[in-house]
Amino acid sequence: MKGADQCPKCASRLTADVEQAITSFYARKIRVCGNCGTAWEPFAVDQLLDKDVASSCFLDPCDNCAFRPGSTEQSDPVKWRELMDSIKNNGGVFYCHKGLPIIPDSKDGFAYPRDGKGNYVIKKMRHCRGWLSVLGKMWDRRIEAGKAGE
Fold first, then answer.
1. Most buried residue, 26, 40, 132, 140, by CB count within 10 Å?
2. Distance CA 124, CA 132 (A)
3. Residue 10: pLDDT above 80?
4. Is residue 61 a contact partner of residue 67, using CB atoms and an 8 Å limit?
5. Is 19 inside a domain boundary?
6. Which has the closest alpha carbon to 41: 26, 53, 55, 56?
7. Is residue 29 part of a domain?
8. d(CA 111, CA 55)
9. Which range marks the domain in which residue 127 is found?
10. Torsional sign, CA 114, 99, 135, 71
């Protein structure tokens, strides 16, 4: 499965894992393709909720998920609010970055799949487990608030 054991760009299995401490935005371990030079944050297939579906979400949030307490994204309250507003304005969805090519100078830092017109290819994107967990907690609070008001 690409992203797990193959380069997400050229599908090569000629890869090497590299420890990086340059930035706290990307994971400490990244995988680099020896064929085309693409770098990405690898993942283990056994962490997928449905191992037969490439776009399946994970069982648990990633080690560097934006929604984990103390994440780099949450350290700046203004940027965090902007991210939360953008999620709200984007229909309440947020996608995972694991297995995607790293593009440091891009808007998102990763090469999310796009079509020829530059639109996201949603069916190839993985929902973020951290965000799904946040949504679940919000839903639970609303249900409990509704029961209290009965």
1. 40
2. 17
3. yes
4. yes
5. no
6. 26
7. no
8. 15
9. 48-148
10. negative
Tell me which amino acid residue 126 is: R
Instruction: Give the chain's mean pLDDT.
Output: 89
End-to-end CA separation in angstroms for the chain: 49
Report the candidate in 122, 130, 106, 115 with the shortest Cα–Cα distance to residue 39: 106
Q: With beta carbons less than 8 A apart as the criterion, state whether 60 and 129 touch.
A: yes
C-beta separation of 25 from 109 below 8 A: yes
pTM (predicted TM-score): 0.84
Number of structural domains in the chain: 1
For residues 85 and 127, give the distance between their C-alpha atoms in angstroms, rounded to a whole number.
18
23: pLDDT strictly greater than 80: no
Tell me, yes or no, whether 144 lies in a domain.
Answer: yes
Q: Which residue has the tokens 């992203």?
A: 3
Residue 24 falls within a domain, yes or no? no
DSSP H helical segments within the chain, as ranges?
A: 77-89, 129-148
